[in-house]
Amino acid sequence: MESSNYLETLRTVINAQLDRLTDYPAAVPPRLKEAVRYSLLQGGKRLRPILTLAAAEMAGGDPAPAIPAACALEMIHTYSLIHDDLPAMDNDDLRRGKPTCHIKFGEATAILAGDALLTEAFAAVARTADEAVRAPMAAALAEAAGVFGMIGGQTDDVIGEKNLSGGSPSDGRIALLRSIHRRKTGALITCAFRLGGLAVSAGKDELNALAACGEAFGLAFQITDDLLDVTGSEQLLGKRVGKDAALGKLTFPGLLGIDESRAEAARQVEAGRRALDLFAESRAKSAVIEILESTLTRKS
Amino acid sequence: MESSNYLETLRTVINAQLDRLTDYPAAVPPRLKEAVRYSLLQGGKRLRPILTLAAAEMAGGDPAPAIPAACALEMIHTYSLIHDDLPAMDNDDLRRGKPTCHIKFGEATAILAGDALLTEAFAAVARTADEAVRAPMAAALAEAAGVFGMIGGQTDDVIGEKNLSGGSPSDGRIALLRSIHRRKTGALITCAFRLGGLAVSAGKDELNALAACGEAFGLAFQITDDLLDVTGSEQLLGKRVGKDAALGKLTFPGLLGIDESRAEAARQVEAGRRALDLFAESRAKSAVIEILESTLTRKS
Questions:
Q1: Chain A residues with CB inside 8 Å of B114's CB?
Q2: For the packed helices B107-126 and A131-145, what is the interaxial angle rounded to 10 degrees?
Q3: Distance (Å) from the alpha carbon of A121 to chain B's nearest alpha carbon
Q4: CB B192 within 8 A of CB B48
Q5: pLDDT by residue (tens digit) across B2-16?
């Protein structure tokens, strides 16, 4: 992959900054710090923050102003994983190839570590150097992560799963599944693109193009996530597979079949690529397109 | 109480706005909306938001600009109660005289409702009319609610409780107890005063005075909270009593005895009153002082 050095550089920047942001002094309870860092710093693809930095570079030429927002997105993504893995939610024991936070530290600490990451994400955004973009970024983050976005989608996914998988007509179930994914996964990925643009004070057309790319990419990513739960390797994924079917969840392969799901993912990747036509060719744009396309062949 | 009409007016404003802010459209899962509103709108003293509005009036003459911040504080307070009540945390079944959120809606919904309230609190602050104060308020809120504030204190309170109640010397335990309370309860109450000042662009001296009052009041409030857990009525409090002793928690009456705890609370109330000397006499200032003093005689 041509962009691999560039992406690795972005990943290194993000990991270093996440490390610094959570290197709390002794006033913070050591066990809380340990749990936060255990979940936040043990690998992960850094997909969302990389997209934020690359979007900032595409729209403004410099990824640096977007670093706090990029870290905030990864913190919110990690908090959502910690809470989703809890026994009362998806009850997962394995994440990124290691015991989930509550298995390692107990439920109370896992709940608190998730709460901490969600809160500190807003603290990070509020410390962005450019004062003018702090509040718009906090607003975009809250909207994507809140009841209209991630939490709403997660609620329908976790709470509604038993009522939704059977009975209703197929068209209605596909629309519902798209709606769940647009909120549960898509909102934060779309926000990753938008925050990159906001960080460099991009114009309205550029912000809309970034959001359109994010929406298409979010859907493609979730469709392939569903496919991996059917066809993927537990070892490569670092998490359990076959859970969707066991929980009776709505999934794209469950509703559309594997072939049509793959075709739909390819259509979304193409739509995401076209949304970027507005931007001049650049290292960052090539990298985003490579990430988009790699979704179709990802193994983890 | 002379200020009761004034306080009732503030409470009505807050309750109406909290109702509006959570009157989500159908795109938000109904069960999530119901759980959020169940926990947020069923009474509660509205202590923190009232203090925010009164602080804004003391420092700037008008409480209106502080309404979003006031609502954000009550949302964060409510989220912390929902998560603290969970079985993995304090395992409480009664709150404000009714079944706790997880008893009523199940653990998954309670976790999500808490996450939603925390997130939407930042959304509310980010929508404050005066753009210049949005980011400073979001930063203050995140700091008070995060690892250096409420979550840090709560972690030491929940996770550390078994290690801290015995063994170490009395002076060290009192210092630790003050540190826990300064973070767990005090940080958000101090933030309530500060957000009121920030909302009306108060100067540095005024912000410091508000914070000093908040710190003293927070400590007085927590000491009397500890006392009520020993001497209070479950019916008046709307929550279980005697839980601190049962859990072996550090408390002021446990360490200082009941009489000295009462004396310490009175000293803090006096310190809080003196911190307000900077402000001209006003309806708002009288109300804050009445709230401070009523802490010493509160039954709930």
A1: 115
A2: 150
A3: 8
A4: yes
A5: 688 999 999 999 999
